[in-house]
Amino acid sequence: MDCEGAAAAEIYRLPEECVAYxxxxxxxxxxxxxxxxxxxxxxxxxxxxxxxSFLPPDHAAILARADDxxxxxxxxxxxxxxxxxxxxxxxxxxxxxxxxxxxxRSGAKCVMLSARALSIAWxxxxxxxxxxxxxxxxxxxxxxxxxxxCWLEITGKLQLSxxxxxxxxxxxxxxxxxxxxxxxxxxxxxxxxMATVTVxxxxxxxxxxxxxxxxxxxxxxxxxxHKICLQHMGEEETIMHRQELVxxxxxxxxxxxxxxxxxxxxxPRPRDGGGGGCGWREVELGEFAVPAAGGEDGVVEVSFxxxxxxxxxxLIVQGIELRPKCTSKLIKLDS
Length: 335
Known about the structure:
The protein has helices at 3-12, 16-24, 28-34, 39-45, 48-54, 59-64, 69-74, 79-88, 211-216, 235-242; strands at 91-93, 98-102, 109-114, 119-120, 129-133, 142-146, 152-159, 167-182, 194-202, 219-227, 247-250, 256-259, 269-270, 281-290, 298-306, 313-324.
């Protein structure tokens, strides 16, 4: 037997606990792939010890706040099943104002704030906004439907401690349109809405500290801002936004007005699993980094503003979702 074969044979003789520990130091995708190595590896890779390490340390406390947390945990025969359940069907928290799930690739937390959890300008004025029972494909029992405003502003806040440390997140506005939508078009040369993502960490957090420690702590604020397109006229419009384009409007007296292209504008895309024929879509508002665990408290604030003065109708807001930015390949948990 060559050296490589001998080493493989030695691996198969390892106790299951040792194999499980080694697999728990990898990723959910690696655990699924390793289960195909041998029956012994499959038993280790499917063990509760492995998948408990992929679940957030505070998942039990979070599920205790969930509207259906007991049912979600009770219907799962193993930690792997619970992981898959949270990846495929996030649970609702705090009277359906927030949802909690997991990213299938990394196991990082995914949180979505419902429209009820957001601060919406004029949201309590029934002549401006209407609260509608959850539409097909909506995660929450009700959504906010815009009736008539000229000033659109939506803001959401979340403690960084509710997200996974040492992770880069992106914030997405999840929305749809009613049949009578007006004033939200995004055409070349027209003013665009703005999205801002601000993270205040350190002393700006809300966790209590001793006075001396609070005085010594520093506050760090980072802000990212982007132009947003909610509604464009098809794929050609998206391409036009991203290409070098010059539009010249010639007036009778010969003056040329030049509109330079905006290469940074964020355009919408259909939302995965929207279903129900409601046409749910999402647009990325910006990204931010959650510091590594080690003492930093903080808050992330995501805001979306449209202040062009145009009267707007027909926007349907489901919420703002915060989920990790991942580039790794999607995995199947039933492998």
